[in-house]
Sequence to fold (398 residues):
Amino acid sequence: MSQSGRTIESVRRANLAHLLRIVHLRGPQSRAALTEETGLNRSTIADLVGELVRVGCVHERSPDPSNRVGRPSPVVAVDPQVVAIAVNPEVDALEIAAVGLDQGIRAVERIPRDELLSPTDTARLVAEQVEHWRRTDLDGARIVGVGLAVPGLVRAADGLVRNAPHLHWTDAPVRDLVAEATGLLVTVGNDASLGAIAEHLFGAAKEHDDVVYLNGGASGIGGGLIVQGMPVGGVGGYAGEFGQNRPGIATLADRRAQGGVLEDEVRRARLLAAIGLSRADDRELGAALAAATAPDATAEIERERRILATALANAVNVLNPSIVVLGGFLAILADLDMPGLVEAVRAQSMPACAEDLDIRAAGLAEHRLLIGAAEAAFAELLSDPTGVSVDPGAPSGR
Fold:
């Protein structure tokens, strides 16, 4: 093939990826809108859309009724039958979902655990669930791959879980184990980093390019960063570990762990103990905290909010984000009195860093990590729509 032939083919692949990403991120688009957005001519758009239809990534439908003069333009939408399997292993449960390319949740299963999951357990349970769904909820779906959102340090180069301390995983090759068990392409990332990407693309931070995200889960507190619209992973992929920072604690009475890091002081388990529960999902926890009146419970809630505000102020001073997004039990804590938390953060921040600051709960709620994991699984398809197998029941690219 000539150099010009390779160039033409690479441009075509880039255009296909660009079109697919537009309808993935923005929802259904008319051909006319795609023509205007890309600057390509109508015949080129028609050809590219036809190719995306052929490989099973999108479908076309008749336009909605309109009073506009002229021939209406067909509407292009991602095919919701293209799905990724999203997985979030935690200390108390394994959550698995099938997420469509349209961000729709096709199926979700939460498997409670009394014992810690091992990497091998995780691979086995994911494979069993995928096999079950192929016969039921995902009959006829085209599975692209698996994305795992792991509460720990994940090496960006190869997906090795270097350390997930609360799961007791060290140098765990969970990507390879899940790939072998399922026959699917597998991508692994830090749970909070993936949550940050999901919130930036589809959630509370959708209109923001400088984002600090903190996720509070059963395993502790993690974080993710978006700077000038791009995820920041650091040299090894480990950036954003806000839970390992040591916030200043103004009064000795507020300290619970000598020399403890943020996730030692602000903990889901401490909140559960304060309200007398052994376990609860986020909705149950939120309702219980909102209804809490016992002095010990309200004191613990306020203690954790004070320390959280200091930690957030530190992040604001260092990174100067336009928005801080909180997920999991941190969102629950914040929503008990969001204006009060914002005021406490501003009081401890440099005025210039906080003057345009917004703090919000995660817009994707309980699905934030799953949608982030699915986005990681879709990455290869979105970069080369013709290069990834999406046949029903077929291994997807591995």
In short: Residues 394-398 have pLDDT under 50 and may be disordered. Residues 117 and 194 are 20 Å apart (CA to CA). The domain at 206-363 is CATH 3.30.420.40 (Nucleotidyltransferase; domain 5).
